[in-house]
Write a structure and sequence with these properties.
6-stranded antiparallel beta sheet, 136 residues, alpha+beta, elongated, 6 strands
Length: 136
């Protein structure tokens, strides 16, 4: 397991936070489940790789939409990505995913990961009404 994943796990333990954890080959994955008002239940994955160079945070396919709405949704995603510098909205198989990639160079911080998780959830909550309105 990567050193950053170990440090994050120790941080979680110190905060008395328990998350679902999976380890596959050279990756460690933590799952954060949240029920966001007006959006519903979403799952965010924090993916640590053994290189310790970055952590990928992704809320994968949190909002599905009809295929015929894809052009208008892609336009909305472009607009959102122009407005957000840290959070990236992407279309994945007729669904919206939201992600942040946090780079580290021997300066890992669990607090930064927690802040970025909060940022993703906040962006989802704030932008969900605009996304829904765009496809109506």
């Amino acid at each position: 397991m990567a050193q950053n994943a170990i440090a994050f796990e120790e941080y979680l333990r110190g905060q008395e936070i328990t998350l679902e954890k999976n380890t596959h080959e050279d990756n460690t994955l933590y799952v954060i489940r949240e029920n966001i008002e007006e959006v519903g239940p979403v799952s965010l994955m924090a993916l640590f790789n053994d290189s310790d160079r970055y952590v990928t945070l992704i809320c994968y396919k949190y909002f599905a939409f009809p295929p015929e709405k894809k052009p208008v949704l892609l336009e909305m995603i472009n607009t959102l990505n122009a407005e957000y510098t840290m959070v990236k909205f992407v279309e994945t198989g007729n669904a919206v995913s939201v992600q942040v990639v946090v780079p580290f160079h021997d300066n890992f911080s669990s607090e930064v990961i927690v802040d970025m998780i909060a940022l993703i959830f906040r962006a989802i909550k704030e932008e969900h009404p605009r996304i829904v309105k765009a496809i109506q």
